[in-house]
Design goal:
The protein has 15 helices and no strands. The two termini are about 30 Å apart.
């Protein structure tokens, strides 16, 4: 497939994704703004307060966290500066919250894809949410102790902020959707360029030694790297095929899916959160390091797990489709 053909195919795919995001984001954004104006946000905030307080974040951001987990990052992005004014957030706040949603977002859809490769949905979903909470908590402890990133956040892009009236709010929502469109396509085209120039393949090769540290080996290395750079839909999608062919062991498939749950779409998602003011080292390098260490620990624990427990509790063997 030529670069132009690939670019057109990617553009069509991105258009479909954008239209889906619009259908999801607009109702959620308007409903959230309405709930905010009638005082429902303040009433619901205490429900999320315990978790947000542990992470040093405003309790209002709990609703954006929930939106991210159920729908996706793009559903949460327009809500962040609506729920909490930019002036009330520090770089540390945005960084910690970004880490939280980078680990666990779009769970119903992404975890359903992972489940098709064999890993149980409950086990991998719990690991993603738990991993995000642990990493965000570690960041909070480090940043609050050292005072790093305590400066007021200065985002290059403010998706939305509270408007004085509905006309201004809807106008701001429209501007956000236009910007979202531009950002989504620029990131999509950048990935196509990386693929066309061979840089993406080189990045995957360079990553192999790190994946081996996490306990991921053989063919699973390449498929995990695909998920790391291009997302769960690509990485786990390939794993589904390999799982049904029996070419990769179930435990390697599980570890690969766990790692992808912790770190996937690292280029696209990280750039998006950095545009909101998050620290690059924390959302990219730190998250990748955590994913490697956490997956390595899980790999060690997995060795102690009997086959009976593994296949009963956390993995279902996938079979190749019957012919004829």
């Amino acid at each position: 497939m030529s670069f132009i053909t690939s670019l057109f195919a990617g553009t069509r795919h991105t258009l479909a994704i954008y239209w889906l995001l619009v259908r999801i984001t607009v109702p959620i954004a308007i409903a959230t703004e309405f709930l905010s104006r009638v005082g429902a946000i303040e009433a619901l905030s205490p429900v999320f307060a315990p978790v947000m307080n542990i992470l040093g974040l405003p309790s209002e951001l709990g609703l954006a966290w929930l939106s991210a987990m159920l729908v996706g990052i793009w559903a949460a992005v327009p809500l962040i500066f609506t729920l909490v004014p930019v002036s009330a957030l520090s770089v540390a706040d945005v960084t910690i919250f970004s880490a939280l949603i980078l680990f666990a977002h779009g769970l119903p859809m992404e975890q359903k894809i992972i489940q098709q490769a064999g890993p149980g949905m409950i086990a991998t979903t719990t690991l993603r949410i738990g991993g995000g909470l642990i990493y965000a908590f570690l960041l909070h402890q480090i940043l609050s102790t050292t005072g790093w990133l305590s400066a007021p956040v200065d985002p290059t892009w403010v998706p939305m902020s509270t408007a004085p009236d509905w006309v201004d709010y809807l106008w701001g929502l429209g501007e956000t959707l236009v910007t979202m469109f531009i950002v989504l396509f620029v990131l999509s085209w950048c990935l196509e360029i990386l693929k066309a120039t061979g840089l993406l393949k080189l990045m995957m090769v360079a990553l192999a030694p790190l994946l081996r540290l996490a306990g991921i080996r053989g063919e699973a290395e390449h498929l995990t790297a695909v998920g790391l750079f291009l997302g769960i839909s690509y990485g786990a999608g390939l794993l589904i095929r390999e799982a049904r062919s029996g070419k990769i062991s179930p435990r390697q498939i599980f570890l690969s899916c766990v790692f992808m749950g912790f770190a996937h779409s690292v280029i696209e998602d990280s750039l998006l959160m950095m545009s909101l003011g998050a620290d690059a080292y924390a959302v990219l390098a730190g998250r990748l390091a955590f994913a490697i260490i956490a997956t390595a620990i899980i790999a060690l624990l997995l060795k102690r797990l009997s086959d009976k427990t593994f296949f009963t509790r956390i993995f279902k063997v996938q079979h190749a489709p019957q012919s004829g």
